[in-house]
Amino acid sequence: MAPLRRGLSWLGSRPHTARLRPRWVLPAAFVATVLVAGVGGYLLHGANGPATKAAGSNAAPAGPGTGVSAPGGNQALDAKAVFDRLVAAGLPVTNAVPVDTSTDPDKLLGHAGGYTSRLSFTVPGGNPKADQYGIGRGGVIEVFATAADAKRRADHLRKDRERLYIAGSVLVRLVGDVDRTLADKFRIAVAALEKAAIAPAR
Question: Are 70 and 149 in contact (CB under 8 A)?
């Protein structure tokens, strides 16, 4: 019976190799798995995160427009936006008609030193039946790339019988028959455009 007891005793015991397995093997394997997963996650996601952020932070800002800048922002005013400001100021301006290269009577639109946008409008003192693209109906708004271009244009027009008002790169022209009191209101409204442009953003 002794051999049988030894056999049973051997079957009920743990294998020799199991008794010698160090207790730190399983925890070490778990830690290794976590590290591998973490490195993989970084390579798949983390590496792309900073690159996307950098691309956004280095994106080129919108290109500067032309004319007087709108208050509190970088977007510049074109001739139509200036016209809208004059309307908002309570001036009796109507029937804004912008020009393009085919209808521009002075052929300066888009040329070096010329205006980047232009429109004519009707105002009391002008002739409402005059050419819709010219100054005859009462007034014209011209917007230039720079203030120097606007001043150069105004200097060229001073020999004509016009009332001229400049705000930065914006030139507002009125026919000489516009009432002086009304012309004064235009002067104040145009000056307000430049003041609004240089006012600090809040």
Answer: no
Give the burial class of 151: count Cβ atoms within 10 A of its Cβ; 0-12 exposed, 13-18 middle, 19 or more buried: middle
In the chain, % helix, strand, coil (3-state, to 5) comes to 45, 20, 40
CA 38, CA 26: separation in Å to the nearest integer?
19
- What number of CA atoms fall less than 13 Å from residue 1's CA on the CB side? 0
pLDDT digits (tens, 9 = 90+) for 83-134: 999 999 999 999 999 999 999 999 999 999 999 999 999 999 999 999 999 9
Instruction: Starting at the earlier edge strand, list the strands of the sheet with 138-144.
Output: 94-98, 115-122, 138-144, 170-175, 162-167
* Cα distance between residue 134 and residue 173, in whole Å: 11
Model confidence pTM above 0.70 = no
Separation of alpha carbons 99 and 121, rounded Å: 11
